[in-house]
Amino acid sequence: MAIGLGTYAFFWRISERVEHPLTLHQMLEHTHDSGCSVLQICDYTPLETLSPAELAAVDETAKELGIRLELGTRGITPEHLRRYLDFADQLDVTLVRSMVNTADHKPTEAEAIDLLAQTAPEYAERGVTLALETYEQVPSAQLVRIVEAIGSENLGICLDPANCVAGLELPTDVVSRTAPYVKNWHVKDFAFTRQAGWVGFTLTGCPLGQGLLDYDSVVHTVQPAANNINQIVEHWLPWQDDAASTCALETEWTQHNVNYLRSKS
Fold first, then answer.
1. Smallest Cα–Cα separation from 180: which of 140, 121, 216, 212?
2. 201-256 pLDDT per residue, tens
3. Could you tell me if 207 and 257 are in contact, meaning their C-beta atoms sit under 8 angstroms apart?
């Protein structure tokens, strides 16, 4: 098991709301400085605009810093997944996380199986694992059926039990249902708070160990896979009063969460 950072741990520091968003090279440096050994470049559209030379430079920086790269995208059409398989080759990546749905393409279960059946053998042949993330738009039971229908060791699940709360699934149910197929874990804590006037709730992130994520139970349930999968730190950090305080808190949460995971290893 390795501890890594995802680009969602840099959500605000790479956003247009800050004056100087971090570059990929800077994210790699921050990953190294935090003591992590993996960076998951996830839903980071600038990656798709990089030239072969620029991709090679990212790969070189990662290797110099001792950081392994993972990739993350959305969608399961063969054309798109093959494009990310090519990125994986160029960046020496062995895991790509994706999501079944995109904003403009929501395949049925049967359609998803058909689409994945076209590219799963290619991922397996090139030694790359495709991990489909748990989230509220696709019930976890359906996601498991899709993975089981393909039946490839190189197709599994990226576990993120927090996402499924919005689909009225209990995190413990999601973890137990997907446990045999987990290939990657997005680790973030979360909590409900009452809205002003007690009218409704807000579901937001919080530092690990301070919310509803039962980390120890997840590790126990997904064993022995938990010994082999990478745990990728993410955040649901609300915007604070300004960019400086938001970025400072994001940095603080990241290091807290990395230290928390280290204390558990």
1. 140
2. 889 999 999 999 999 999 999 987 767 899 999 999 999 999 999 999 999 999 99
3. yes
**Count of residues for the chain?**
265
pLDDT band at 44 (very low <50, low <70, confident <90, very high): very high
CATH topology of domain 3-264: TIM Barrel (3.20.20)
42 and 71 Cβ atoms separated by less than 8 Å: yes
Q: Label each residue of the chain as H, E or C.
A: CCEEEEHHHHCCCCCCCCCCCCCHHHHHHHHHHCCCCEEEEECCHHHHHCCHHHHHHHHHHHHHHCCEEEEECCCCCHHHHHHHHHHHHHHCCCEEEECCCECCECCCHHHHHHHHHHHHHHHHHCCCEEEEECECCECHHHHHHHHHHHCCCCEEEEECCCHHHHHCCCHHHHHHHHHHHEEEEEECEEEEEECHHHCCEEEEEECCCCCCCCHHHHHHHHCCHHHCCEEEECCCCCCCCCHHHHHHHHHHHHHHHHHHHHHHC
pLDDT digit string, tens, across residues 137-154: 999 999 999 999 999 999
Domain ranges of the chain: 3-264
CA distance 212 to 264: 17
Q: Which residues contact 227 (CB under 8 A, 6 or more apart)?
A: 1
pLDDT given for residue 26 in this prediction: 98
- Distance, in Å, from the CA atom of 70 to the CA atom of 42, rounded to the nearest integer, reads 8
